[in-house]
Amino acid sequence: MILLIILFPASIAAAQPAQIGRISLGLNAGLTRLVLEADRPLAASLSNAPGGLELELRLENAVLALGAPQILAAGVIERLDSPASGGSLRLTLLDTAVVDRAFLLPPQGEQRHRLVIDLLPADPAAFVSAFASPVVLPLTLVPVAPAATRQAKGDNRKLIVLDPGHGGHDPGAISASGRYEKALTLGVAQALAKKLRATGRYRVVLTRERDVAVKLLDRVEFARKREADLFLSIHADSLAADRATRGASVYTRAEDATDREAEALALRENRADQLADGGNEAELDDVVAILLDLASRDTARLSRRFAGLLTSALAEQKLPLRRNGLRAANFRVLGAPDIPSALLELGYLSNPAEEAVLFSETGRNQLAEAVAEAIDRFFGAASTP
Ligand SMILES: [Zn+2]
Questions:
Q1: Could you give the domains of the chain?
Q2: Cα(276) to centroid of ligand 1, in Å?
Q3: What distance in angstroms lies between residue 30's CA and the mean position of ligand 1's atoms?
Q4: What are phi and psi of 364, to 5 degrees?
Q5: pTM
Q6: Residue partners of 142: CB distance under 8 A and separation at least 6
Q7: Residues within 5 A (CB) of ion ligand 1
Q8: What is the pLDDT of residues 73-98, one digit of tens each?
């Protein structure tokens, strides 16, 4: 991999300059993402420019095939423009920052080769030392943190990200007696976090600890930024037309839903974003979608494996499961290409008996017990398959 990075600029050096036809900026979870799109893979370096809060992005054998200088603003980037001579771009920053990730994406659909650069706000000292010598881009060829980075952080325990669905002005499903899905999901996630932390085997973080709205892709980025080992989104369903339906289901992500009910559920859950606060994530959404296509088969396989272990553990706890309790649909929140992810629908708030159980301490603990068991099995901490 490292050899390839070094060879990249050399291998295109003799060729015609790459034509950069599109530049976009996106924002998510505190990261500012700059994407340069060209007809061939780009190589570049980023270094301090004399202006203090300015960086020069020097492109290797590439020219801008764009008309006017690009002036954009987002996140830590105040403006981005191109000096008269092609081959470099000037980034004027609002705040000191460092390069968090920088990677190449191959052509996908209408999009061509992309160089993706993520900037993360940092203190002035970190900024100065980060760019003391030019930062060669891309940093990696694939947008996945190498194992070495994880080890360097000192705590090798698996990191579990629990994602309590909905929050803030998005209540999620509403029960027969008027209780909210957002409260149930947070309560179950907190009980589960407590149980997992008590084993001493895991680090556990929640995408929200309070009653606040969080966008779906921010939940995904939250887990990716922390290099989570497992992502579990927790929800509950409601079926106004049929108060008798009950039981849990476990979902993984697939472009094509396994059935119409799963497809309709994913549409409902994906709608949460329309209720969350506004913000410009269109660009990023696009990039995340492409990243998803790059997902290793391994991640998909591991997600299905975890989902299978979870349905078994729920059944063993004598918790009610839907028939076909293991399904797939296109849930945006399961969009991390490099983290095994599943979505647990705890049950039906439209069923008064199930609502009572789900909101009880006993019910919550039983669910937490089952999920913790499945996590133990997934990471090999328990002997039973
Ligand atoms: Zn939900």
A1: 2-143 (2.60.40.3500), 149-378 (3.40.630.40)
A2: 13
A3: 25
A4: -60, -45
A5: 0.60
A6: 103, 294
A7: 165, 172, 235, 269
A8: 778 888 887 765 667 888 888 888 88
